[in-house]
Amino acid sequence: MSDHFVDRNRLWSRLNTALEALPEPPSTPIAVVDLDVFDANADDLVRRAGGKPIRVASKSLRVPALIRRALAHDGFAGVLAYTLAEALWLHETGVSDDIVVAYPTVDAAALRRLTSSPSAAAAITLMVDDPAHLDAVDATRASLAVPIRVALDVDAGLRVGGQHIGPKRSPLFDTADVVALARRVVGRQGFRLVGMMTYEGQVAGVQDDVPDQRTKSLLVRRLKQASMAQLEVRRREISGALAPIVELEFWNGGGSGSVEATAADGAVTEIAAGSGLLVPGIFDHYASFEPRPAAFFGLRVSRKPQPTIATVHGGGLIASGATGADRSPVPWAPPGLHLTGLEGAGEVQTPLTGHPATLLGIGDLVWFRHAKSGELFEHVREVHLVRGDAVVEVVPSYRGSDRVF
Length: 405
Fold this sequence. Notes:
The protein has helices spanning 3-20, 35-49, 64-71, 84-92, 108-115, 118-123, 131-138, 175-186, 201-204, 214-242, 259-263, 275-278, and strands at residues 30-34, 54-57, 76-81, 99-101, 124-128, 148-153, 158-160, 163-165, 191-198, 250-253, 270-273, 295-306, 309-313, 330-333, 338-339, 349-353, 365-369, 382-387, 390-396. By secondary structure, it is an alpha/beta fold.
C-alpha cells in the first residue's frame, strides 16, 4: 500500500476520532479544517512568494476565523474580497482594515454605505475597468467629501494568433486604454487611484501536471510560460506609462497556482492567494507545488443497496465553473472509494463503489474534498477546526455568521 493511501487511512481515523469525541454528533455535511495542514500551507505560500506579501482571497475561505488565522501569519497582509457588501462586513467586524474588492460593483446599497463612511472608505478599495463604475459610485453619494479608493483591473490573458486565452474579466488590455482610464480617475474629484490588478487565471487556476494527461499538461505548461513572458512585458510597459501620472500603493497579481511566477515579476508588489491554504480538488495536479489538502466534509452512510456499494446521504456539492467531472466532490477517506458514472454526487444520496465500500456500515463517516476552495462553506453554518485527532474549536462560516450580505 502506498504512503498516500496510508496517510488517507490515518486521516479517516483521525477525523472520525475527533468527531466521535463531541458531546453530540453534528449534522451532515460536517465541514472540517485541519489546522496543522492549514498552517503548513500558509508557510509554504509565504516561502513561494519570496518576500512579497500575500493578500488573502476571502472567496477561497469564507470563514472569518480562518481569514484572521491567515492574516496572523507573517507574510500575509490584507484581504481580497469578492463583493463590496462582504468587504464592508469584514471591515465593520474588525477582520481587516485593508480590503481590496476584486470585482467591480454596481450594488447601490453597498456603495451608499461606503460613500457615507469615512472609515470604510479609507479601508476599502474598489475595482474598476470602465468609467461607468465611477458613475455608479457618484450616483450614490451626496457629496465628494469622502474620497473613494479605486484600483484598475487590467486583463491579464494571453493573446496569441488572434486568440485570447484566460479569464474574460476586463476590457482593459492595451497600455493606451489603461493610461486613458487612469487619467480619468486621477482627474475626477472624489476618487483616488491607488492600485492595479492583473489576475492571470490561465496560469494560476489551471492544472498542468495531470498524470493521465501528459501531452495536454505539457501544452498547458508551455502556454503558461508564454503567458507569463507576455504579461511581464505588458506590466512593465503599463507601469512605466503610469509612473508620471500616479504613484500607486500596490500592484496585485497571481493566485495560489502561480505564486512563484507572479512574485518574480518586478511590477507586482503583492500576491493574491486563498485556495492554497485549503487545497481543494482542482489544485491537485500542479508542477509548482505539492498539494496538502486541509479542508474536508463528512457524510454518513445511510444505506447499503448492495454489499459492494455504500450510499451516503447528500453529497451533491458541485463546484462552480464549466461543468465537468473536475467540479464534483472527491471521495477521499477511506481511500479507494469512487463515485458511480450513472449517479455521481447526488442532492440526497451518493452511492460509492470501491473496496472500502464493502467494509463500511450504516452510520459510518466518509470524508470528501470539495472541488473548489471556499464554496464548501456556503453549505454549512459551522466549521470544525481539528488538530491531530481532536476538535479544538467550532467556528461559524460566512453562512453561520451574523452577516449582512
